[in-house]
Structure formats: structure tokens, C-alpha cells
Amino acid sequence: MNPTTRAPAPANRRRLERLRGIWPDVVALLAPRRGTLALGVVLMGVVRATTLVAPAAMKVVIDDVLGARRVDLLLPIVIAVAAATALQAWISHVLTLLFSEASQRLTAELRGKLHAHVMRLPLLYHDTHKSGTLGSRIHNDVAGVQDLIGLGLLGFVGTLMTAAFSLAVMAHFSVRLAALSLICVTVAATIAGAGTQRIREISWKRSVIEGDIHGRLLEALGGVRVIKTYRAEAREEVIFADGNARLLDNTRETVALSARVSLATTVLWGLINAVVIYVGVRYILDGTLTLGGFFTVTVLLNYLAAPALQIAAIGTVVMTALGGLERTREILREPRENADPRRLASIGPIAGEVRFEHVDFAYTPGKPVLHDVSFRAEPGTVTALVGPSGAGKSTITGLLASFYVPTAGVIRVDGVDLATARLDPYRAQLGVVLQETFLFEGSILDNIAFARPGATRDEILAASRSARVDEFAEAIEGGHDALIGERGVRLSGGQRQRISIARALLADPRIVILDEATSSLDTRSEALIQEALGRLLVGRTTFVIAHRLSTIRRADQILVVDGGRIVERGTHASLVAAGGLYAEMHRRQHEPGAGQRGGDASGMSSASSSRSSSSTRTGLVR
User: How many domains does the chain have?
Assistant: First the structure.
């Protein structure tokens, strides 16, 4: 047995305690469906009762029709059995439709609730959790919850009904034989339950392994170009094979244990039948039980034992469903980014004054990445952020976009503390163009309209023209309605970037964040985009992250970030004259041969440095 899959006893106890805490959630989940459940229980009782008509009728057939030659009873008995069977079939059909609809609707509602919650969690949560694992939870864990109604709770109730009805009929014919059967079946069910408890533990572990495999698979599919570029197919095969091997070991252990449980229950079932046959025949010989009664009792023994032994299997289904619900509840307990009770301030149309006041920030507690950042950006001005890679530039703009909340200090927009501002009204006035452009599968038109779904086609096309998207869109089949593939795979990097800029233009923001917005463009495209960006930035407060210093020469202020601190600030001319880090970066990018001597301070290669020097005439801010 693989020791890595055995959960320690304290962990099991903690898990059971968590599952006990889930029952209020289960009740809340099922409460809107209490009418359906009540009807289901009633119909289930009718179905289980009708299944006993045929076994009970056999007593009359053997003792009365055959034994006493009461042929007149044969036709009524046949009609009763046929009617009971027809009624059972019809009600079972109704139950299948009823609970399939209820369980599927429950799954859809819970999956929708979980998806909506995940999309509203803070970006910091997404930074620390694999998207593949979250996707697995939304799909797989919720899918297991649907068994809670059909195979789970109602199945459990149905088995108890069958066992109770069978025991009552058996007791009618022989109380002693019914008591003996109940004792034997209880012992067998207890032994089977002990085995299935271990199976439940293994199944719990399997859900974790499946989540890991699913998450890695999504990562590999998303990064297939990188994998192929670096010939990493074999490495990915090894990683996937390792996860597959763990899953196979887990499955083997489950199958082996299930086989042992099945062997034990089969042996026990044979012993129970042997005991009941021996005692029943003795009762017949003593004259305390008729042949028909004995036959009916032995048939009903199956109806008593099968549900009792199924309870363990149903318990596994219920525990798996509850485990999925518990993992779902873990996510639902995570506070949404707008759940902060301080976020009551509503920001109206903003002018765009931005203040950072002694701001610190840490993605991980105790490991700050920003230290005492303070600056002011006047409305309608351009602030450029430059510095080495990893210095904290993107973190500053992430804080401005309210993706994160400062660990210390305050960020104010038009005097309002962003930590207290409602997010939707603020972000509606925010435009972001990232270096890594993300496009959705769909058409060019759909991706531009993503910023403002209510925009008219004419407004979308106007934004397209401003960003020079129309130049390539009108040259391909389908034009703006052409499908671009997953993540825009059918377009070049420069084309994707122009769509991203058109999306920001359509949003008509008051604050604009440009993170290397022209880095993916060739010289001609960059010149065209500079013109479009020039129109976008007029009258708007703009923050530009740039490695190519030629693109931010005319910024109103330049902040040099290094090690999470603002180490220099000023205009291009004043910073070059000061001879500090900015001047060194400028020299490395613009002096012939400087890039070859060691690269620039921003981590650019000599090739990118020389390439940037060729675009000094196309400054981003004019």
C-alpha cells in the first residue's frame, strides 16, 4: 500500500469535523428544493413498497394456489404483481426525470456561483493559486455535488426504506428468522463499512492528484509554443507521467481494496444464506414456518442485505460529494475584493489627480517589494516609470489599478483613498494596455468591444481606425468579424497590441496605464500607434512603464524605481544632467557600443538597446 496516500488519523478527524460543519451548507443548498425532495421521498417509498409485492405473492402461490389448490387466487395475484411492476416502472421513470433535472440544476447553479465568486476574488489570490487547479475545482468538485441528491441522500433514504419494508414483511412470517437475518446483515454491513471508510480516504486523495494533473495539463497546453521552442516535450511527458503514475497507484489501491471488500462481503453473504437456510428448514420441520413463508423470507433476505451493504457504497458517494462541497466552500469563504466594508466611497467622474503617500506593499507578508513610495501626478499629465526589471514598476501600476491594497500608506485619486473606493465606478474610468496582450477567442470586433459591450458598431470601428486596426482587419477575410483564434493566435504580436489599444480607446478612460504598450510593434506600426496614443492621452492622467527611454523623453515627470524605492525623479533633461541611474541607463541605450559593454540597467539586451535607439524620433509622449 502506498504510504503517501494514507492520511494520518488526526487528519481524518479534522476532515470529519470539517464535514460536520458542512451540513448547514448542505441544508441551505437543498432548502430551495425541499418540495422536490419531499415528493421524491414519497415516490421512493411507493417504489420500494411495490418491489416487495412479487416476493410476498410467492407465499400465497406456494401455500395456497399450489398447496391448497386455490386456483381462483392465481389470476388476482398475477394482476396484482403486473400492476405493481407497472406502477414501479412508471414512478421510477418519473423519479429519474425529477432528480436528474434537480441535480443538474443544482450543479449549474453552484458552478455559476463558484465561477462568479472566483472572478471577483482579489488578484493576489489568483497570483498564488494555479488557474488549472481553480478550473478543476469549478468543474470536477461541483460535478460530484450533483450526486448528493440522486445517488447520495435519496439513494440512502431508498435503501433504508427497502431494508425496513423487507424486515417488516419477514417479521410477519417469522419474527425469529427476521431477527437472525437482521443480526447477520448488520455484522456484514459493519465489516463492509470499515473497508469502504478506507476507500473514502483514498478517493479524497485522488481528487487532489486529479486537480494537480489537470492544472499542469492546462499550463502545458497554454505554453505549448514555449515547450516546443525549448524542446521540452520529453520533460512535460515525464511530469505528466509522474502525475499519471500517482493517479494509477491510487486507482490500483482503490481497486485492490474494493476487491477485498467484495470478497469479504461475498463470503459473509454465503454464510448468512447458509445460516438462514439451516434455521428456516428446521422451522419448517417443526411446523412453525410454511414452505411459502420460507421461500418468501429467503427472497426478502436479498432485499434486506443488498441495501444494507449498499449503504457503505452510497456513503462513499455522499462523502465524495461532501468533500467536493467542502473544497468549494473553501473558495466561497475567500473574501471578494469588493467585500471590504471600507469600500463605501463612490467615485464619480474623476479629474485624475493621483497621490501615493508613503506606500509599502508585500505580495507575501514580511517580504516587501515596495518601500515608502510617494509621488503626485497632476490631472492630464504623463508620469513615466523606469528602472531595472523587477524594480517594482508594474506593482505600482497594479496598486493604482486597485488590483492590490497597500500594506502601508495611502493611494488617493482626486483625494479619495482607493482602499475605501467602490471598484466598479473607479475601474470604469481606467484604461490599461499591457505588454502581454490578452485577447479572447472570438472576432476582432468582439475583442475591441470587450471594454464597452454597449458600444455601437460605429463607435467600435472608430476606435479601430484610431488604433490602425482597420489596416490589417480589412485585408483579411471577414474583416472585423474574422475569428482570431484562442488568445489571438492567428494574429501577429503587433496586430494583437493594436487591438488592445483600440480596446482602451473605446473605454474612454480618465486614467491610462501603458505597460510597454509599443514593445511588440515594428517601426512603421509604432509610428502609427504613437499617433493614436497621442490622441488617447490628451487630457488624461497617464502612467507609462518603459524600458526604451526614447519613448518617454517628453513625460511631465519620470520616476526611477530601483529595489522597490523611487530613487530619482524629474524630467528627462534634469535626470540626464544629474548623472544618476537614469543617466547611466540613457548612456547604455544611446552611446555606441555601450550596450555591448554590459547591457543596460533595465535588463535589456544589446540588440534591444540598439533597436530602441533607432526610434528616438518617435517619442511616445509628444
Answer: 2
